[in-house]
Amino acid sequence: MSDNPVLAESGLPYDLPDFAAISDDDFLPAYDIALPAHRAEVAAIAQNPEPPTFENTVAALEASGRLLARANGIFFNLEGADSNPRRSEIATELAVRLTEHQNAILMDPVLFARIDELYRRRRELDLTGPQLRLLERRYRDAVRAGAGLDADGQQQMREISARLATLTTEFSQKLLADTNASAVLLTEPAELDGLSDGEIAAAARAASEAGHEAGWLIALELPTSQSTVAKITDPVVRQRIFDASINRCARGNEFDTRDMLREIVALRARRAVLLGYADHAEYVIDEETAPDPGAVAELLAELGGAAMAAADREIARLSAATGLEPGPADVTYALGIEERSPAGEDGTGDAGAVDRFEEYCELDAVYRDGVFAAAQRLYGLRFVERPDLAGYHPDVRVWEVFAGAQDDQDTTGTAGGDGIGLFLGDFFARPSKRGGAWMNSIVDQSAQLGTRPVVVNVLNLTKPAPGEKCLLSLDQLTTAFHEFGHALHGLLSEVDYVSQSGTSVPRDFVEFPSQVNEMWALHPQVAPGYARHHRTGEPAPEELLAAVRAAGDTESAHSTVEYLAAAALDLAWHRLTEDQIPEDVAAFEQHALEQAGLAHPLIPPRYRSSYFNHIFGGGYSSAYYSYIWSEILDAETERWFLRSGGLRRDQGRAFAEAVLSRGDSVDPVAAHQSMLGRPAQITPLLRRRGLLPDGG
Fold first, then answer.
1. Could you tell me the sign of the dihedral formed by the alpha carbons of 471, 475, 481, 487, in that order?
2. Would you list the DSSP string of 2-16?
3. Fewer CB within 10 Å: C terminus or N terminus of the chain?
4. Which string of DSSP letters, residue by residue, matches 97-149?
């Protein structure tokens, strides 16, 4: 260990980092210690004079690099959730250093020889299922990094991976900077019509914090569609916000990412060919649960045709209702009106139900009596807030998580149970935080290492004024349950080896547990627990809950098309060869959407290429389809829960045993099939998305 506060044992529960003791100046010195220490550990494994065994090679590699893992868990959580110029500089430097470090290990010929020998003899080694899966993973990782290439090929791989590390890091940084710079300043009170008092107050605070003497600053959200566009009544203002969103990082200024993303695509294509793949999509999907890019394209086409037809019907209905000849921003607005006023069978709806429901969705109540309460009833978990433990920002809250207690009505944590980890909630937006919502793991669970999980959920809710309460929209409520599904995947992990822990599963499976957890947000056994008026404490009327459930029962065709269009763009970019990279990004987008049958003039993709951080700054390249792919499993699993009575401990236990606890120690799809008793079918997904023929 080290005296460096990044690396030193904190002495805090679950080895929670002592964030108060860590400064930005500590990070690079920490890596100066951790990287050579890990390399020395690996060298000792590679040069072991004993014949290779699973324990002295594969298991030993799993146990190595603990200092580096600790530094990564701390720094990269901060870099996404609370960045600053110094942290951005460090991230850019580390992107190359960490890539070179990983390449040196994966392409070490002596180490690879040991792994290769074990891999060739794997059926003779009497390994457990998780051990065999881990050995095969180690072998594939080395081969995919270039361990099997000649010296020239390996050098090309090093250069490509180092350059990609820099480019993808800088892409995210440019997007955050331009998203902040593109916020829309409103100066007239009339321009705010349609926003709630809380949203108006938050916009005023944002303007003041950004240095404006007056006005209201409308911050941009990560996707193309903006929640403010769905509410503001002034069409000119809606168009301003829409234009600011869709033109991000594509205006020819210092934040423009188009040349950068073209280079990323070209480098990925070259790497794929070096490794024997036709393109980057084939390279990525080879490691996923989908069989190949063709199968993904077929799914997108199957859903796309039905979604486009449904979208045309939806827009015709909206136009008739509003009398508008809408543009894309107006469609978002009209759809927002309809979603907030779901119609009943007689055509009359509870106008404003979704908007009114926000008054019953106070942040603390949602988590205490909704998110946590559902996890308690399903999995026997309890969450006890620990104000004595500090997060990495003053807004971050910490809960200790207990498992094994029996009394479903006790939410205080006093009814027994064993501590299994920590849950950190970082709920409020700030300029230093990238957009969207996500789960991070600071410490991963591992029986081999004796570590228990420390996980973070990051949201971007509007922080209320002092003395006021944070109220969640229906979308934000769903997001809270979704991200907590990822947290459960980390918290309930029970694996031996750290690289198989929690969410370390194929990309097109990782969204499945989080999508399943969304089903409890409005469930009749959950919603009445938290849905109380934030001022009076009165429970939400059943008719209001019913109206909100009606609004959330089926995805809009608009939402389905914008998602499928983004997934199609991702696949189109990454099926290119290096000599096919286009000069004109916008023209390529249009052609790709036309080819996919998803070029709707009134529904732009959820992300345009220039701000598609999932694929050019994150880990979803050639895998953005994963949300819909895993939603097939999710829709089937929701039916499985509901057929058995819903929020039942035995069902939760079965789901945890089959999925949440296993991580990547088993084939996740096979485990799900075993739980379900058969392979998942697509029909429940089509029904949920409203894509079945009439009467289906």
1. negative
2. -SSTTTS---SGGG-
3. C
4. HHHHHHHHHHT-HHHHHHHHHHHHTGGGS---HHHHHHHHHHHHHHHHHTTTS
Q: Exactly one of 483, 562, 631, 636 is catalytic; name it.
A: 483
Contacts of 446 (CB under 8 A, 6+ apart): 62, 495, 496, 497, 498, 501
Beta bridge partners of 395: none
**Is it the case that residue 349 has pLDDT exceeding 90?**
no
Report CA-CA distances (Å) from 38 to 31, 44, 113, 146. 10, 10, 19, 20
Record the tokens describing residue 622, joined without a space. Answer: 């050639």
Q: By the 8 A CB rule, do 244 and 184 touch?
A: yes
Query: Would the pLDDT of 26 be above 70?
Result: yes
- The predicted model gives 157-162 an average pLDDT of 96
Domains 249-340+554-696 and 362-530 share a fold: yes
Q: How far apart are CA 188 and CA 214, in angstroms?
A: 10
* Model confidence at 437: pLDDT above 60: yes
Interhelix angle for 27-46 vs 109-120, to 10°?
Answer: 50
Which residues are within 8 A (CB) of 553 and not within 5 positions of it... i.e. 6 or more apart? none
DSSP state of 58: I
Confidence of residue 688 (pLDDT cuts 50, 70, 90): confident
Residue 415 is predicted with a pLDDT of 47
Structure tokens at 421: 């980890």
Name which of 589, 539, 537 is nearest 568 in CA terms.
589
pLDDT digits (tens, 9 = 90+) for 124-140: 999 999 999 999 999 99
What is the spatial distance between Cα 279 and Cα 77, in angstroms, rounded to a whole number?
Answer: 31
- At the topology level, CATH places domain 362-530 in Neurolysin; domain 3 (1.10.1370)
- The tokens for 98 are 């960490």
Which residues is 545 bridged to in the sheet?
none
DSSP 329-371: HHHHHHHHHHHHS-B-TTS-B-TTHHHHHGGG-BHHHHIIIII
For the sheet containing 397-403, what is the strand order? 381-385, 397-403, 418-428, 454-461, 438-443
Give the distance between the most distant pair of CA atoms in the chain.
80
Q: Output 686 or 70, whichever has higher pLDDT.
A: 70
Question: In the beta sheet, which residues pair with residue 439?
Answer: 457
Are 230 and 241 spatial neighbours (Cβ–Cβ below 8 Å)?
no
- 571: exposed, middle or buried (Cβ count in 10 Å: 0-12, 13-18, 19+): buried
The model's pLDDT over 314-346, given as tens digits with 9 standing for 90+, comes to 999 888 887 767 799 999 999 888 877 655 433
pLDDT for 232 equals 96
Active site residue 483: yes
Taking each continuous run of H as one helix and of E as one strand, the counts in the chain are: 27, 7
Please tell me the distance from the alpha carbon of residue 185 to that of residue 232, in angstroms, as a whole number: 14
CA 107 – CA 157 distance, rounded (Å): 10
Domain range annotation of the chain = 13-106+108-145, 182-246, 249-340+554-696, 362-530
Q: Considering the domain 249-340+554-696 in this protein, what is its CATH number? A: 1.10.1370.10
Q: Is 263 exposed, middle or buried (CB count within 10 Å of its CB: 0-12, 13-18, 19+)?
A: middle
Distance of CA 270 to the CA centre of its chain: 27
pLDDT at 574 over 90: yes
